[in-house]
Design brief:
By secondary structure, the chain is α/β, with parallel strands linked by helices. It has 6 domains: 2-96, NigD-like N-terminal OB domain (OB fold (Dihydrolipoamide Acetyltransferase, E2P)), CATH 2.40.50.500; 103-171, Beta Barrel (OB fold (Dihydrolipoamide Acetyltransferase, E2P)), CATH 2.40.50; 179-247, NigD-like N-terminal OB domain (OB fold (Dihydrolipoamide Acetyltransferase, E2P), Beta Barrel), CATH 2.40.50.500; 255-324, Peptidase S8 propeptide/proteinase inhibitor I9 (Alpha-Beta Plaits, 2-Layer Sandwich); 329-624, Rossmann fold (3-Layer(aba) Sandwich), CATH 3.40.50.200; 630-694, Orthogonal Bundle (Type 1 dockerin domain), CATH 1.10.1330. It is 22% helix and 28% strand. Strands 21, 22, 23, 24, 26, 27, 28 and 29 form an 8-stranded parallel sheet that branches. A 5-stranded mixed sheet has the order 2-1-4-5-3, with no helix packed on it. The chain has a 5-stranded mixed sheet with strand order 7-6-9-10-8, with no helix packed on it. A hairpin with a 4-residue loop joins β1 and β2 (43-47). α9 packs parallel to α12. It starts with a helix and ends in a 10-residue tail after the last helix. The model is unreliable at 1-26 (pLDDT under 50).
């Protein structure tokens, strides 16, 4: 590439030697080595190959006879005091020719007005400020993509410049990806199209890609990708919703008035965005460049999102949505036990807590013979924690945070639902008594919270080395913010567990429905699906969730409650036991192991996973723990990942190798051919699973 540029430049200079006006048009970019010569009146610049002599706007500290590299904009018919000059080169930089090597540059950044120049600072090097040859009409705070040749030893008239990018191109960066959109609203007839207006929005009109059989006047739920910069063909449409689905089923999700969440490519762009949208930053997740904005309540959320998404620096924008306990919509409340005896752990009192049948049937006592959760950190995101409760005083609590009051005390408020976090934590402590609990308060006493506080809590858990996160809350809004927070936790191999919802629906609820999150529905004490529980193929497991008994805050220390919020911590606590036995277990391995070890003989009979109503079966804590690390290598056969044991991670290794492009092959292919058929394929993973979980034949690999 460099050779082609050099040849092109030489050809250009040869043409210039004949007639410089034929080689360059006015305002052409120019860069070349040459020599400074003393004319009768001025110092002039003569480029290599000759052809013309130019007056420069800036000479730096160079003198006649110096070999220099000059870059700038070449002008003809310019006004100059140098009579011998054929042309002028303005806005130029100058440096030693043959000095510091010129390096190719191509990347995004932002334009910043310094005290004397408009300069370009790249995102990857925010402390560098480069002079450009060409600014293309862009202005301060514009995010641009710049290509050219970087010279960090040049001299310019810009006092704060640390280098130059010469011969540059400048353009807008590639537009950001489409954004998830979902809303309940009404179809109406526009001038030339049927448009969709979300309820509560008197401004927004969206063009849909698919209408199916719906028409003007229909009330519908729309989900798809919001494309703010689309070329709409519908008069009055402010954006397009592509790849959309449309139906009449809707679950209520409320955006918080006057609040928006954005993520930026570069925080330096925030000032211009705030000015343009008349908004202010009121909170942030600094490490992720995510910001919570406040704007006028009179502006509709959807209109504000379209405005924000038109800024190239915005990675995503969405309203800050409400998040609730599943029990809020179900109107489930706790029932205090006025007659519970005082806590006596040695005597298993109260027995309604320590010996409750629905949990004991999962094999807790048997599991605790092998593991008690020691070494596992469980982050519980909820609505407050009574750390003075007699039972939680026996727990190992590590510092958490209150993201509603912005302090380090996650104590609950008083009132309806205020015991939720205390109740959930008691269940974790019951099954995994030696784990450490990290209390994170992100919801209020009535079970109401918002996506931003939830996301801050998830990132807190990541930054403070949590191993498992319990999320007994949900929203029917597919929030981009909540999704990327869960993806970040999953990438850190944190095991995520979430309540599956209490609305007796198959509609996905989040975060339970996200990939990498273990979603938990509820069954009763006879292993029938609870009549309130959500279901569907997004679920992973079911667990007891009816009349569960645990710790309460307030006048009475104990009581019962019903909901998937209390099914989830049973799975969370099991993950803490698994992690304590096998600290290196990954989130994906834990999820697969729980599925494969689940009980499939349930109330309605034997299920065939994945089952629409019972997912992969009911949590079996004893089986999950006792089969976690079964057996040792048979002469290395089956130990695919070379960790000196044959377990579920070896089956996962084979599955990833087969189905995920780029996954590494087994170091020893013979050790992975566990059925000795001469190939490594899905049948080998099935053989390992049968061996680990069903008492199948031992691995039998080919010799050699």
């Amino acid at each position: 590439m460099k050779r082609h540029i050099t040849i092109f430049l030489l050809l250009l200079l040869m043409v210039a030697a004949i007639n410089p006006h034929d080689a360059f048009t006015q305002d052409s970019l120019f860069s070349s080595c040459g020599v400074l010569v003393q004319g009768d009146q001025c110092v002039l610049y003569n480029p290599t190959g000759g052809g013309f002599e130019a007056a420069l706007e800036f000479y730096g500290g160079f003198q006649p006879g110096d070999s220099v590299y000059v870059s700038g904009i070449i002008l003809f018919d310019c006004d100059t005091l140098c009579a011998e000059a054929n042309v002028c080169i303005v806005n130029n930089s100058i440096g030693e020719c043959g000095g510091e090597p010129q390096t190719p540059f191509n990347g995004p950044g932002i334009l910043i007005q310094t005290s004397d120049c408009l300069l370009f600072t790249p995102f990857e090097s925010p402390s560098e400020y480069y002079v450009l040859d060409e600014y293309g009409g862009f202005e301060e705070y514009d995010t641009v993509l710049v290509g050219g040749t970087l010279n960090q030893s040049c001299q310019t008239q810009c006092s704060e410049a640390t280098g130059c990018i010469v011969g540059n191109t400048i353009s807008l960066p590639e537009p950001p990806p489409d954004y998830p959109f979902e809303a309940f609203g009404t179809l109406y007839q526009g001038l030339d199209c049927v448009l969709f207006a979300p309820h509560g929005d008197t401004v927004a009109g969206f063009e849909l890609e698919f209408l199916d059989d719906f028409g003007p006047g229909d009330t519908v739920f729309v989900r798809g990708d919001l494309v703010a910069s689309c070329q709409t063909t519908c008069t009055g449409a402010i954006a397009c919703i592509e790849n959309n689905t449309i139906n009449s089923t809707w679950m209520p999700v409320n955006p918080i008035t006057g609040r928006a969440v954005i993520q930026l490519i570069n925080p330096n762009a925030a000032f211009g965005i705030l000015q343009a949208t008349n908004s202010t930053i009121i909170d942030s997740i600094t490490s992720e460049q995510i910001y919570l904005l406040s704007f006028a309540d009179s502006i509709s959320p959807d209109s504000m999102m379209v405005a924000l998404l038109n800024f190239p620096d915005v990675i995503f924008a969405e309203p800050n949505f409400e998040v609730d306990f599943p029990e809020n919509l179900q109107l489930s409340i706790s029932f205090p036990d006025e007659y519970a005896p005082p806590l006596d752990i040695e005597a298993d009192q109260p027995s309604s807590f320590f010996e409750q049948n629905s949990i004991e049937a999962l094999g807790v006592d048997s599991a605790n013979e092998l593991a008690t959760g020691s070494g596992s950190i469980v982050a519980v995101i909820d609505n407050g924690f009574d750390l003075n409760h007699p039972f939680l005083e026996t727990a190992s609590i590590i510092p958490g945070y209150d993201y509603l009051r912005d302090d380090t005390d996650p104590s609950p408020d008083s009132g309806l639902g205020s015991s939720h976090g205390t109740f959930v934590s008691g269940l974790v402590q019951l099954i995994s008594p030696d784990c450490q609990i990290m209390p994170l308060r992100a919801l209020g006493e009535a079970g109401k919270g918002d996506g931003f506080a939830i996301a801050k809590s998830i990132y807190h858990a990541i930054d403070n080395n949590a191993h498992i996160i319990n999320m007994s809350f949900g929203t029917y809004k597919d929030s981009y913010l909540l999704r990327i927070a869960c993806e970040a936790a999953h990438a850190a191999d944190i095991i995520l567990v979430a309540a599956g919802g209490n609305d007796s629906t198959e509609i996905p609820i989040f975060p339970a429905a996200y990939d990498g999150v273990i979603s938990v529905s509820a069954v009763d004490s006879t292993d029938f699906l609870a009549d309130f529980s959500n279901y569907g193929l997004d679920m992973d497991l079911c667990a007891p969730g009816v009349n569960i008994y645990s710790s309460l805050t307030g006048e009475y220390n104990w009581g019962s409650w019903t909901g998937t919020s209390f099914s989830a911590p049973l799975v969370t606590a099991t993950c803490a036991l698994m992690h304590s036995l096998k600290p290196q277990i990954t989130a994906d391995e834990a999820e697969l192991h729980l599925r494969l070890s689940a009980e499939t003989e349930l109330g309605p009979g034997t299920i065939d996973p994945p089952d629409l109503y019972y997912a992969h079966g009911r949590l079996d804590i004893a089986n999950a723990i006792w089969t976690l690390d079964l057996g040792s290598p048979v002469n290395g056969c089956g130990d695919v990942n070379q960790d000196q044991s044959v377990n579920v991670s070896d089956a996962v290794y084979i599955i990833n190798y087969i189905f995920l492009p780029g996954s590494p092959p087994p170091t020893d292919m013979n050790s992975a051919d566990v059925n000795s058929d001469g190939a490594v394929n899905i049948s080998d993973a099935i053989c390992l699973i049968n061996y680990i979980y069903l008492g199948g034949a031992e691995p039998d690999c080919p010799e050699g």
